[in-house]
Amino acid sequence: YLVEVPKNIQSANGEKLEEGKVCGVETFSEVDFGVNQKMNDKTAPVYKTDIQFILPDGNPSTEQGIKLYQNATYPIEFTVEDDSGIGYTQVRIASENGADIFDLYDGPYKDKSAEAFTFSYPLFLGSGIPAKTKYTVTATTFDIDHNSSEKQSYFFVYPGHCANGELDKDKGETDVDKGG
Predict the structure, then answer these.
(1) Which of 3, 9, 91, 118 could form a disulfide with 104 if both were Cys (CB 3.0 to 4.6 A apart)?
(2) Residue 154 near residue 52, CB atoms below 8 Å
(3) With bands split at pLDDT 50, 70 and 90, how would you rate the model's confidence at 32?
(4) Under a CB-based contact definition with an 8 Å cutoff, are residues 48 and 83 in contact?
(5) Beta strand pairing call for 72-81 and 117-125
(6) Cα of 84 vs its chain's centroid, Å
């Protein structure tokens, strides 16, 4: 970012810009301004909903340890708000062995940061995602004053044939979607 400041600007208590040199070469301008500590935001963002997975039938689930199946999409959603504005949200999805880590970043548009922010990401679990693996979802949201709060959930990935409504004897099922 390039911010141009008028040379005659001064702080509320009358301090003016001073000019100098950086490493004897480049000129710069600097000034110290005080911050009203009573107005300084120290409140972290608040999650209005838990992390939820939208199931194929359209219903949301906040169940910890939910079984999700390969070859399906599960949108991950939650809503967060802050008294002075949301900066951004980082969502990390990590396997229990640390081999798979996926980071997502999102946030409100600049003129919407004071409103509640709903994070939504369509998580597709392809056939290459290791089955019978635990994944932890960690959402960390920062406000515009860099206060943060965190919410966590987890899920297990199971093979897609375990929820296809068919008896897959070749995959070891002993009944429809049982065993294997």
Answers:
(1) 91
(2) no
(3) very low
(4) no
(5) antiparallel
(6) 18
The whole-angstrom distance between residue 79's C-alpha and the CA centroid of its chain comes to: 10
> Whose CA is closest to 180, among 131, 142, 127?
131
Nearest Cα to 72, choosing from 61, 62, 57? Answer: 57
Does the pLDDT at position 59 exceed 90?
yes
Q: What are the beta bridge partners of residue 86?
A: 143
Q: Are the beta carbons of 82 and 170 closer than 8 angstroms?
A: no
Q: Is 135 exposed, middle or buried (0-12, 13-18, 19+ CB in 10 A)?
A: buried
Residues with Cβ within 8 Å of residue 155, at least 6 apart in sequence:
53, 65, 66, 67, 68, 134, 135, 137
Nearest one of 155, 129, 165, 140 to 75, comparing CA atoms: 155
Mean pLDDT of the chain: 81
* Alpha carbon separation from 19 to 4, 8, 12, 45 (Å, rounded): 14, 12, 19, 39
Burial 58-83 (b: 16+ CB within 10 A, else e): eeebeeeeeebbbeeebbbbbebbbe
